């Protein structure tokens, strides 16, 4: 079955760029679907960051759009998130997930989540 | 974009039914049937429970059902069980070609 595994630094300094990668197994991401990033600050709710179609088209949360880049590497079966100029407010668990429909819609499955703390 | 509105908490006794509401606007779930619901236990990744308003993924109990009327979607859990105690989030597609989540609802099984 499809599995997603997020990876990246757990600590990022303020004003730096947060970089995470999601490795997909059990499915070739070049074959289809949207692939997304969602985050959850400690004790708070879920926030959609953005999604990328297998062809490379991207869709971002307007509140984060100026700082977010999502890319896809089909040769490695991975997609990645970069969030620039981070502050303490960007401290969160970051999830990667597959959008299981033909549009921006529902996520299944999800990766295990990566806690990223922004602190000096 | 503003988050969808969910009650902060709901509760029910074992065996009872509860309903969690999710209110949006005509720019999101009021127009589109792309509404999904997720269950999240502490320290775990969210789990898809309902998609496209009322469809259940394979393996999800038929005690979980979804519906929509106007700008409000609802998740109903019947025959409440202790294992249903969790946080629940709704999500919707928007006319800006984005996704939004609700603020989340904590379900307590008394």
Could you please describe the fold and organization of this structure?
The complex is a heterodimer of chains A (120) and B (110). Chain A has 120 residues and is an all-beta fold. In chain A, strands 2, 4, 5, 6, 9, 10 and 11 form a seven-stranded mixed beta sheet that branches. In chain A, a hairpin with a 6-residue loop joins strand 4 (34-40) and strand 5 (47-53). Chain A starts with a strand and ends with a strand. Chain A contains no helices and eleven strands. Helix content of chain A is 0%, strand content 51%. Chain B is mainly beta. Chain B has strands at residues 9-12, 18-23, 35-40, 47-50, 64-69, 72-77, 86-93, 99-101, 105-109. In chain B, strands 1, 3, 4, 7, 8 and 9 form a six-stranded mixed beta sheet that branches. The mean pLDDT of chain B is 97. The A-B interface holds A 36, 38, 45-48, 51, 59-63, 95, 100-101, 103-108, 110-113 and B 1, 3, 34, 36, 38, 40, 45-48, 51-52, 57, 89, 91, 93, 96-104.
Strand content of chain B: 35-45%
The count of strands of chain B amounts to 9
Ends apart, CA distance between termini of chain B: 35 Å
Q: Regions of chain A with pLDDT < 50 over 5+ consecutive residues?
A: none
How large a portion of the residues of chain A is in β-strands, by DSSP E?
over 45%
Count all strands of chain A and give the number. 11
**Assembly category:** heterodimer
Arithmetic mean of pLDDT of chain A: 96
- Count of helices of chain B? 0
Portion in helices of chain A: under 10%
Number of helices of chain A: 0
State the helical fraction of chain B: under 10%
Question: What structural class should be given to the helix and strand makeup of chain B?
Answer: mainly beta
Radius of gyration over C-alpha positions of chain A, nearest whole angstrom: 13 Å
Largest interface: A-B, 25 and 25 residues
The helix/strand class of chain A is mainly beta
Low-confidence stretches of chain B: none
**SSE topology string of chain B:** EEEEEEEEE
Please give the alpha-carbon distance between the first and last residues of chain A.
39 Å
Overall pLDDT score of chain B: 97
Please compute the radius of gyration of chain B using only Cα atoms: 13 Å
